[in-house]
Amino acid sequence: MMRCACRSGLRSGFLAALLGVLWWSSAPAQPDPYSTVGLHWTATGDDGYVGTASSYHLRYSTNSVGSDTTGWWNNATPVSSGLPTPSPSGSQDSARVVGLQEGTTYYFVVRAVDDGLNESGFSNVAVKATASCATPSNAPQQFQAAEDSTSGNVALTWVATTDPLPTQIHVYRAVGSGGMTLLASLAASGTSYEDQTTNPNTTYRYRAAWAAPCGSNPATGEGPMTSEITIRTGGGNPPPPQPTEEPLVHAFPNPSRGPVQVRLNVTGTGDQAVLLRVYDLSGHWIATAVDGTYPPGMHQFTWPCMSRDGARVAPGFYELLGTIGSDKVREQIVLLP
């Protein structure tokens, strides 16, 4: 332990604490290395090596101390909570400093205080960098929302990431003009989420980000956010105009959690060739819903939501594209989880 030059008014021999850096390793107090630094030092007495100090003052900064320790101390951030009651002289005391930024170097100094509120000189400077956090480089793609007209829930969908870094996707929601809050943290392998906490006739805004979470703060490790999407539930949107005649193609129920019915209106006076295929929003051919020749009139078919290779199609947005005779047709289909 080193003696220090004490400022005027301190008792003779009042010592500065010696400060060092450590990581806490025993459960359940394992710190978050991305936002927490664990510190330990040797306690001094309140009169040299004798007695016990009354309290500690601990400060930190991202600026190095330099030659003007007093100036650094006056501008550094004080630690206002979590400091231990001083132990008897020669014992080990420790504290954790929380709420730090990841990937940042910090400088720490501690001082002991006696029962007359006199501060010791400055300890040595402890230096520690919090752990760095690698973040995904891209936002989720094709992030979309659709209301389930039956339940009023909002179905959110996106395409899977090819980036190996994310382990989660964070979905945020705002109500009306309010601020965004974290709605769900989901495994990065997922491609959909159903918000079951919506209310009728309410405007909701959604965003999402891939994440490789670092420590206890969910926002640490997030990549770029998607653009904001807005949807109004429960009849807030005006009803679409009623068609004056039966559409050439109609898929229902839509959105759907199960098989989709495809109704065709074949017009004209003779048989018509019909080819309808299902595509994802990236333009990949997923399945063939109808392929044949049919006479004029209404015809109905079932697409079991299976792909060309017989696999169940994932929830999301799809396009039903094709031709009925010489007419080109298009219908969007939303599959819910």
From TrEMBL:
SUPFAM superfamilies: Fibronectin type III. It comes from the Bacteria. The keyword Chaperone does not apply. Residues 139-236 form the Fibronectin type-III domain. The keyword Signal applies. Keywords: Signal. InterPro entries: FN3_dom (IPR003961), FN3_sf (IPR036116), Ig-like_fold (IPR013783). Residues 1-29 form the signal peptide. This is Fibronectin type-III domain-containing protein. It comes from Eiseniibacteriota bacterium.
